[in-house]
Write a structure and sequence with these properties.
Pfam families: ScoMcrA_N (PF26345). This is ScoMcrA-like N-terminal head domain-containing protein. It comes from Vreelandella vilamensis. With 111 residues, the chain is mainly α. It has one domain. It is built from 4 helices and 3 strands. A 3-stranded antiparallel beta sheet has the order 2-1-3. Strand 1 and strand 2 form a beta hairpin. Helix 1 packs across helix 3. The chain starts with 9 loop residues before the first helix and ends in a 17-residue tail after the last strand.
Length: 111
């Protein structure tokens, strides 16, 4: 089963983000797998938290969800799939782009 079909949930991602917040980006990336390189494209934010690198974050969430499965390594990811996966999850946005909290609406939407 590919990681895209593994059923990684927001809860798994939140646990991985908490680990990254405690250890820092570089140590987190290294702990996920020593061959992960720093993200070349934009990183992701989660409701003002972050930034997070998509591939290590997804790999860590997969490890939380499936502790007995082989760890995901850089070659398990193709192109922008990890970033796109995260951006489809509620609350995620690209670094540098505004992300509104749940239930928030722009004043122009109130008219």
């Amino acid at each position: 089963m590919s990681w895209q079909q593994a059923g990684i949930t927001l809860h798994h991602l939140q646990l991985a983000m908490s680990h990254c917040d405690r250890t820092g980006l570089d140590a987190f990336r290294e702990a996920c797998h020593p061959n992960f390189k720093a993200a070349k494209g934009k990183r992701v934010m989660y409701q003002g938290r972050g930034p997070y690198e998509p591939r290590p974050l997804t790999a860590a969430a997969h490890a939380v969800a499936y502790p007995d499965a082989p760890v995901l390594v850089p070659k398990d990811f193709k192109g922008d799939t990890a970033r796109q996966f995260l951006l489809r999850q509620p609350g995620f946005s690209l670094e540098g782009e505004e992300s509104e909290p749940p239930g928030w609406c722009r004043p122009s939407q109130l008219v």
